């Protein structure tokens, strides 16, 4: 009876203990811990040491995203299945995609602008970060655009060129099985832009430095597998932490 009372008392004490409210931020190889929820400007203050930051690509990611790992697993499974019946050229690309995607660091990009000066003067641009584990990216201006999908190599980096249309990046890299009627452009600032490249709806669209461009595989009337793969890859690349 005494033992039961002690266990009950211990359980009550444990329930009243405060839950950890730590905010842990990883950036440029270092980790900073705050013991309670913290404003964005306080996170940025010790890390903003350079005027070379390319603010459009600055981003804060939440690492607690089990759905991203589930999405990766589903994508890798489908890539493996499609390799069994693909033509040699496509089979090689599917294999390369699987290899690279397996190494991606995945997290959820938080939907607000990262700007230190703005955060210091505008409360709306200075959100309170709740307890959690975060990745903060404060990159220099990137000099490449990443191509993903139905292109030679599966995932490649192409030198960024100012005043260059999205379509120009595809000409040498796309596969014959690529569907370039509509490509998806994930700009460095996190915006996902649909870019039609054929017919009357064709538009001129430039890519920001550090953008990722998804080139879909052509799907078949007899199989929806590649259509599903395209959907998965577009979703997954939005969880990709740029490095």
Automatic annotation (TrEMBL):
It comes from the Bacteria. Pfam families: Caps_syn_GfcC_C (PF06251), Caps_syn_GfcC_N (PF20616). The keyword Signal applies. Transmembrane segments: none annotated. Gene3D superfamilies: Outer membrane lipoprotein wza domain like. Residues 24-137 form the Capsule biosynthesis GfcC-like N-terminal domain. This is Uncharacterized protein. Keywords: Signal. Residues 156-242 form the Capsule biosynthesis GfcC-like C-terminal domain. Residues 1-21 form the signal peptide. The keyword Signal applies.
């Amino acid at each position: 009876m005494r033992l039961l009372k002690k266990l009950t008392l211990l359980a009550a004490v444990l329930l009243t203990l405060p839950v950890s409210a730590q905010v842990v931020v990883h950036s440029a190889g270092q980790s900073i811990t705050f013991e309670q929820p913290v404003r964005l400007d306080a996170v940025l203050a010790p890390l903003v040491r350079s005027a070379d930051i390319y603010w459009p690509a600055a981003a804060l990611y939440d690492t607690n995203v089990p759905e991203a790992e589930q999405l990766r697993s589903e994508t890798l499974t489908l890539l493996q299945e499609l390799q069994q019946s693909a033509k040699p050229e496509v089979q090689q690309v599917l294999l390369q995609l699987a290899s690279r995607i397996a190494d991606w660091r995945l997290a959820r990009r938080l939907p607000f602008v990262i700007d230190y000066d703005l955060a210091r003067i505008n409360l709306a641009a200075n959100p309170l970060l709740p307890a959690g584990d975060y990745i903060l990216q404060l990159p220099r201006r990137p000099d490449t655009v990443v191509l993903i999908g139905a292109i030679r190599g599966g995932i490649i980096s192409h030198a960024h060129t100012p005043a260059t249309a999205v379509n120009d990046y595809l000409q040498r890299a796309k596969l014959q099985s690529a569907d370039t009627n509509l490509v998806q452009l994930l700009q460095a600032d996190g915006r996902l832009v649909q870019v039609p490249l054929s017919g009357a709806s064709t538009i001129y669209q430039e890519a920001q430095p550090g953008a990722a461009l998804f080139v879909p595989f052509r799907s078949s009337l007899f199989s929806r597998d590649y259509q599903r793969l395209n959907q998965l890859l577009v979703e997954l690349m939005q969880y990709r932490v740029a490095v």
